[in-house]
Amino acid sequence: MAIKHWIAGAALAAFAGVGAFVYLGAGQSAAPESTFVLLDGSRQSTADLRGKVTLVNFWATSCTTCVAEMPEIVATYNKYSGKGFDTLAVAMSYDPPSYVVNFTETRKLPFKVAIDNTGAVARAWGDVKLTPSTFIVNKRGEIVKSYVGAPDFPELHRLIEKLLAET
Known about the structure:
This is TlpA family protein disulfide reductase. Pfam families: Redoxin (PF08534). GO terms for molecular function: oxidoreductase activity. The protein is built from 5 helices and 8 strands. By secondary structure, it is of the alpha/beta class. The strands form 2 sheets. It has a 6-stranded mixed β-sheet with strand order 1-8-7-4-5-6. A hairpin with a 5-residue loop joins β2 (35-37) and β3.
């Protein structure tokens, strides 16, 4: 019986240690090197994200959650863009470019939109297959938080404010 309690205690301690590691930000990793091809044909690299807090959102026009969360992403961008925050929406490789352009224009998306024609960007960012998948990148180019599905926007705003306050 004592061994079972010891094993349970050791497992609990290990989980707590991993949780603290992730919670305290020690698990941050550099955003992967990748090149985003924007709708206007220009290119932006991961290195270009440094110096700003950036939300990188993988989405598709056929994804109902993506479409539903887009007004909140626009509102978040509008709220923080003048304070050193940026947003980059990356359309998945299976999304027809004409649909992405139409969605971007009709919704008047105010931030950069890229099309991942080959799927290379999604693969580089952890082989993203589920949409929406959102990554928050700090000013140093490190991923500090990721979401699969729509983020909790009040929590996201608190995180953005904390990251913007960092030097």
